[in-house]
Design a protein that fits this description.
140 residues; mainly alpha; 5 helices
């Protein structure tokens, strides 16, 4: 069952437009923190997803654009040989898909936590733990 707190106001939920935008920005920042873990050559589809997410937050991209960017990243993930790179690209896919469904911002964490705990811990030490700073109070 979907967490009602992640349903946008225009769909009958409590999530404001500003909160939704904060979630996608947070998700993309989190994904960018683990970008250095990609061992395969960086692909333009990752940068395209970042730009699409940024454009969505200012009304210059549609939810459909974000979904297409997410699908392109899932295709890229299937093409990669390194397992860590696959999970990082999937994290970016969840990040940009947050425009479609805010719950995807959590999907990013689930994707990363299962496979990258140890390596993320090292990155957090370098980045002063910024990845843990979630933008919303989601507890009742």
């Amino acid at each position: 069952m979907r967490d009602q707190r992640f349903i946008a106001e225009h769909r009958g939920g409590p999530l404001t437009s500003n909160q939704h935008k904060a979630l996608i920005q947070w998700a993309m920042i989190c994904a960018q923190h683990v970008l250095p873990l990609i061992t395969d050559e960086l692909d333009d589809r990752i940068e395209g997803a970042v730009k699409t997410a940024e454009a969505w937050t200012i009304g210059e991209a549609s939810v459909g654009d974000a979904r297409e960017a997410a699908k392109r990243l899932l295709t890229l993930a299937k093409e990669l040989s390194d397992e860590t790179s696959v999970y990082v690209v999937r994290a970016f896919s969840h990040g940009v898909a947050t425009a479609h469904m805010a719950d995807h911002s959590l999907g990013l964490l689930y994707t990363l936590s299962g496979q990258l705990n140890q390596r993320i811990s090292l990155l957090l030490k370098k980045g002063n733990g910024k990845i843990l700073s979630y933008p919303l109070k989601l507890r009742n």
